[in-house]
Amino acid sequence: MNQTYMLSTWVKAPRLKNSVIAIVAACLPYVNQKLFKEIAKDKEVLLACPEREPQLHYGKLASIIRSSKPKELHIYTIEGSPHCFTLHASANEAEYILGEKIEKRHFVIVDAEKLVEINPDTIRVARYLHIVNELIKKNPEVLEELQKHSLEYKLSKILTKKLKTY
Question: Does 40 score more than 70 pLDDT?
Fold first, then answer.
């Protein structure tokens, strides 16, 4: 199982050519080692951490794709991480920068256990908060689902209640 950090990888590394590249949140091996091993099978794994390496993935990913012509690109991140979200956006942006269709798939790991595939348009919509706001207004029950997964949201509800009681 080959793995290294995406930003430490030569964009023309022979092992990347015509491969299935998995861009994986660097913390996933610690969050769920078993799932990480499953994901890494038969792929060239490039670890990435936008919290550690901010704003550098867009250009690097586009350069890897242009230079190495991978067969496919898969992105795996931790659901709910605002940092990890940018890896998904980077893959879509690389497609835009290059002006060519890239065979890619997006995945999130929900609650450290469940692997869920995400439509690339979901990532595009998430970048436009006014659209997300309208979707929540039309479907407020989505906040009940959010409460099942987001500690930040749960605390915000508690703090809002405390504020109202003062």
Answer: yes
